[in-house]
Amino acid sequence: MTIISLVDTMGDDLTVCNAARVSFNKESGWDTVGPFAEEIDAQAAKAQDVQARPGDDSLWQGGAGWVYQRLNDKDAKLIHSLAREGHWSPFSHAIAQFRMKMPLAIARQWYKHRIGIEKDCGWNEVSRRYVVDMPEFYMPSGWRKRPTGGAKQGSSDELVETIFGGKPINNLVAAHYESARRLYEEMITEGVAPEMARLVLPNATMTEWVETGSVMAYARLVNLRIDPHAQKDIKPYAAFVFETLGARFPTAWRALMGVKP
Ligand SMILES: Cc1cc2nc3c(=O)[nH]c(=O)nc-3n(C[C@H](O)[C@H](O)[C@H](O)COP(=O)(O)OP(=O)(O)OC[C@H]3O[C@@H](n4cnc5c(N)ncnc54)[C@H](O)[C@@H]3O)c2cc1C
To answer: Is ligand 1 within 6 A of the CB of residue 220?
Structure first.
């Protein structure tokens, strides 16, 4: 169960480029590729690295259709050289906001990525001091074994199917979750404060929040969390960020992912 959506973005590849060009008191613009009555095929646009914008008569006379624009080669090269040389600050002006829902244990891993993903003023989470809805619990598709070969963290692809001498692990976990849910419900019914009753909920309890961060910060997070050492359950979230920011900030994202121009 991976639940994540892109809420909004601010800026684009040109934002990154112009944040760097301000050092020389310069500003760059988009190269206009052409006007089209309708949106062109998304694959074709991706292949040419062009971005569609609603038609703007001041940019292109003649229509309310779509205007296609692309970064010029000099600006694309600049973005790649910024990433290569570790000039990270221009990438911090391109921003994205996500809404996501994860089990507490995985959310805690995500939360460790602090710099450039606002924690003080831009992270808002469901509060179980107020909310007493019945909690949802994460049920993984299988219970992976410990890793082999002396690795201290992670898991193997093999699954443990049964415990206690042949009892299906999934049934036992479902019963455990149900028992936690009932205990929680009873405590709430009997007047225990939500901030106290939540203490009996397991690590698999889903939590939900909205966060805002820079493309720079998400690139660092994605690089660490799609790595083979990262926990398998966090990877689909990192993969979603990879896909969405790759589509919205194609040149900056490729540069930060180390893809050659
Ligand atoms: C596979 C894996 C296993 C992990 N295991 C554990 C674990 O067992 N226990 C645990 O607690 N954490 C663990 N972590 C979390 C890890 O230690 C980092 O906290 C987390 O990956 C966030 O890293 P970040 O570089 O995105 O950090 P951020 O805090 O977002 O910082 C971003 C960058 O800013 C710089 N920076 C941040 N703070 C400072 C500072 N105080 N001084 C100087 N430079 C700074 C660093 O260059 C850093 O890379 C693990 C992470 C991964 C990916």
So the answer is: yes
